[in-house]
User: Which sequence fits this backbone?
């Protein structure tokens, strides 16, 4: 397995729209394993392929306490959304920034698993937030883009300052 480098906002590559996976093969299964290792090491509860500069529609999520709930979603699509919840979100591509975002409270998502079989899942709470956040990544959208332009500029400034200090 391998740890993959994570792109940091405002890297333009985070705005790439990912392409559907046409064949769920060993290459995709290795990508899923490497993404899971990268997510756990970060640590995080989700990771989209976009964040590791792979522009294919693959994401991994594990919102369990003990790393027992790994899920992979290939070509995920939200088929139903209901309600609204406002949650504080973080992002491995926007380190150290946490902001409240309004999302659907319940989502139904369909996707392929690592065997290429279709499945459907109903999600609520953190899992529903995470699914919406990660699918946004595949569509080239970062959660801070839900915030006001003023807040976005402040965050960009903070991250640029931090990257100058650590260089
Ligand atoms: O997409 C990502 O960058 C992953 C992100 C997912 C997410 C978390 C919370 C709300 C929406 C989306 C993260 O995992 S940020 C890190 C984080 O939330 C966390 C880290 C350690 C333990 C528990 C949570
Ligand atoms: Zn993110």
Assistant:
């Amino acid at each position: 397995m391998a740890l993959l480098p994570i792109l940091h906002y405002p890297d333009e590559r985070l705005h790439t729209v990912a392409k559907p996976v046409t064949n769920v093969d060993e290459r995709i299964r290795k990508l899923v394993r490497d993404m899971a290792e990268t997510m756990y090491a970060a640590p995080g509860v989700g990771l989209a392929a976009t964040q590791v500069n792979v522009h294919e529609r693959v994401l991994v999520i594990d919102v369990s306490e003990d790393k027992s709930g790994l899920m992979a979603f290939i070509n995920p699509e939200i088929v139903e959304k209901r309600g609204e919840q406002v949650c504080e979100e973080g992002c491995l591509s926007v380190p150290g920034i946490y902001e409240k975002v309004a999302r659907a409270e319940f989502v139904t998502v369909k996707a392929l698993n690592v065997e290429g079989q279709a499945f459907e899942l109903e999600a609520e709470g953190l899992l529903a937030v995470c699914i919406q956040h990660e699918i946004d990544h595949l569509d080239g959208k970062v959660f801070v883009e839900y915030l006001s332009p003023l807040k976005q500029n402040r965050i960009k400034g903070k991250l640029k300052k931090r990257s100058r200090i650590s260089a």
